[in-house]
Amino acid sequence: MFCWLTLCCHLQLAAAVELTITVPGPRSQFDIAHDYHMRLLDIALTNSGVDISKVDIQQIPVISEGRAKIELKKGTLINLYWLGAEQSLAEDLIPIKVPTTRGLIGFRKFIIAKQQIADFSRIDSLQALRTKVACQGQHWADTLILSQAGLQVTTSVNYEALFKMVALGRCDYFPRGYHDVLLELEQRSLAYPQLMRFDDIMLHYPFAVFFYVSKSAPGLAEKLQQGMEMAGQQGQINELMRKHPLTKSIFPLQNGKPKLYLSIPNPTMTFHDINNPDYWITPADFGITNSENQ
Questions:
Q1: How far is residue 273's CA from residue 280's CA, in Å, rounded to a whole number?
Q2: SUPFAM superfamilies this protein is in (predicted)?
Q3: Residue 290 — pLDDT band, cuts 50, 70, 90?
């Protein structure tokens, strides 16, 4: 009798689940971007008419971004993740073509060591910035973008190690998404009191994080695309950004206008709707009206 009851319970649970989503867990104890994207996922699925109570979301132990890309292509270990835009990902996976943070991640502020303030204050051009060495994740799309713009880059596969590298002088600066910097420094203030945000320079390139779905889950991709389009058009992404700890500190954007704005291209990806205000933040939102390109 016990076996039959157990089997019936399992069958009832299986019947109740209409959608199974598997994602990597947080990269570290400080990874609130993970929580942000899980909340946005909930919004998008709800918009598309999915009953969230019938969605089984599973998280596997943390894996590197490079490994996540490989596993997404396989579609067995994970079937969804949020990643920086890359052409190869758009070919190998199903991209959900609505930026998760409205392209904010393409607006970069620098984490530097405090003893570097004078050196960075003298930077007045992209050419001058090329004399400095940036830290980036080895598998991040940004690494190639920076390199192709003639900027020096050193890498690590370990996200937390990048902060240590700046602190120890193994690189000069760590370009972070505009919304990342303050929170990341606050979370690590005891470990790295010598690090700071350098506000005078903003580096920008067209870039965004998107949800990517394995080709083994086309139904999930269809629902997400529909739900994310609605989230952008109805202002739900902007509303989440204004409330969530990951991004709320950046508003109003006009307060973030830098002394020096540097723009570089992103040859790895073409964004056809980058001027669509429903989906993208633009330099004008920061009060920036001109740029230097070298």
A1: 8
A2: Periplasmic binding protein-like II
A3: low
For β-strands 152-156 and 107-113, DSSP reports them as unpaired
The region that residue 35 occupies, defined by phi over 0 for left and psi between -120 and 50 for alpha, beta otherwise, is alpha
Tell me the percentage of the chain whose pLDDT exceeds 90.
78
Please state the domain count of the chain.
Answer: 1
Is 19 inside any structural domain? Answer: yes
Any bridge partners for residue 81, and if so which? 212
Domain holding 24, by residue range, is 2-103+208-250
For residue 289, what pLDDT is reported?
Answer: 82
pLDDT per residue as tens digits for the range 194-219? 999 999 999 999 999 999 999 999 99
Residues 6+ apart with CB under 8 A from 284: none
47: in domain: yes
Coil, strand or helix: which one is 148?
helix
Which structure tokens are listed for 118? 């004078």
Considering only CA atoms, give the Rg of the chain. 20
List the beta bridge partners of residue 260: 201
The region, left, alpha or beta by phi > 0 then psi within -120 to 50, assigned to residue 261 is beta
What is the separation of C-alpha 179 from the centre of its chain, rounded to a whole number of angstroms?
10
Give the bridge partners for 210, in sequence order.
83
109: which DSSP letter? E
pTM value surpassing 0.85 = no
List the alpha helices (DSSP H) in 27-133. Answer: 32-47, 65-74, 87-92, 117-121, 126-129
Q: Which among 201, 232, 237 has a CA at the least distance from the CA of 107?
A: 201
Residue 5 reports pLDDT greater than 70: no
Q: Are 85 and 217 in contact (CB under 8 A)?
A: no
3-state secondary structure of 198: strand
Please determine, for residue 171, whether its predicted confidence score (pLDDT) is greater than 80: yes
Q: Let me know if residue 288 belongs to a domain.
A: no
Q: Is the residue at 286 inside a domain? A: no
